[in-house]
Amino acid sequence: MRSILDALEINKNASPERIAVSCEEDVLNYSELYEYSDRLANKLKKIGLVKGDVVALMFPNIIEFVVSYFAVLKAGGVVLTINIIDSVEDIRYVLEDSRVRCIIYWDKFRDLFESILKGLKGRVLSISLGGRDLKNQLGYKYSSGEISDKYKSIDIEENDISSILYTSGTTGPPRGAMHSYKNFAFVSKIWKELLAITPDDKFLAILPLFHPFSQSAILNPCIWCGATLVTLPKLDITETIRVINEKGITLLYVVPEILKLLLKKYEQEKFEL
């Protein structure tokens, strides 16, 4: 496997019915994740995206983020994940600095999206997802033709840029750090070896997927290993505990402040995991 796209295809063929990603009531197995990301990739190519174009994603931790992430890569685009809690001015700066070509955003972020567009230099393409059942939304209209049409893949080299992740800008304006397909593949291999990750593992993503750490340590290693990704759209300690128990979570990445909240909750309720 040279890239995360290779891993996605291999896992789709090996375990098509295994759950790839779930968020609340929405669930996609590996076959569906592959198929729906194909459809959205076809849509991106149909509206004019070409290899190397930067595509921004504006989502919380929901299934649409994951589908869009792999769709952009399949279409040969460069993924730019937007920090959705940033100010409009900061988001606009990142979009202009990266020379974004297209924005895929959550329908519930329409007001934010329109506010950003008002002062954005240049013209950008856009696609909104959400607001209705994902499986219906990524139906025929997102295919290049009939549903049976196979996606025509883009030639991708391992040193091609797959994503741009912006720094926090603590010592000046944020800078876009470019990551190759080989980079994320290598990092995924490291996590697999360090934690002995198997397809039976279940990751819980409560840290935002737009953050570089979450993509490097959670999203990509999970798909690389054919495991299951469970996402929470927002941090809720009670919900986190419930999901850990009900979904059988085996891997949870947190920051110290979240651990403090978990410990405080435990002192109050003495819950079991």
Task: Characterize the structure shown.
There is one protein chain. The protein has 273 residues and is of the alpha/beta class. It has one domain: Rossmann fold (3-Layer(aba) Sandwich), CATH 3.40.50.980. 42% of the residues lie in helices and 18% in strands. It is built from ten helices and eleven strands. It has helices spanning 4-14, 30-46, 63-74, 88-97, 110-118, 134-137, 181-195, 212-224, 237-247, 256-269, and strands spanning 19-23, 26-29, 54-58, 78-81, 102-106, 125-129, 161-166, 176-180, 202-205, 228-231, 251-252. A six-stranded mixed sheet has the order 6-5-3-4-7-8. Strands 2-1-10-9-11 form a five-stranded mixed sheet, sandwiched between helices. Helix 1 (4-14) crosses helix 2 and helix 4 (88-97) packs across helix 5 (110-118). The radius of gyration is 18 Å and the shape is globular.
Q: Tell me which CATH architecture applies here.
A: 3-Layer(aba) Sandwich
The gyration radius over C-alpha positions equals 18 Å
Largest sheet: 6 strands, mixed
Number of strands: 11
- Distance from N terminus to C terminus (CA atoms, Å) equals 35 Å
Shape: globular
- CATH C-level class is Alpha Beta
> Per DSSP, what share of the residues sits in E-state strands of 2 or more residues?
15-25%
The string of secondary-structure elements, in order, is HEEHEHEHEHEHEEHEHEHEH
Share of helical residues: 40-55%
- Mean pLDDT, as a whole number? 91
Can you list the strand order of the major beta sheet? 6-5-3-4-7-8
For the record, the count of structural domains works out to: 1
| pLDDT < 50 stretches | 144-149
Q: With helices defined by DSSP (H or I, 4 residues minimum), what is the helix count?
A: 10
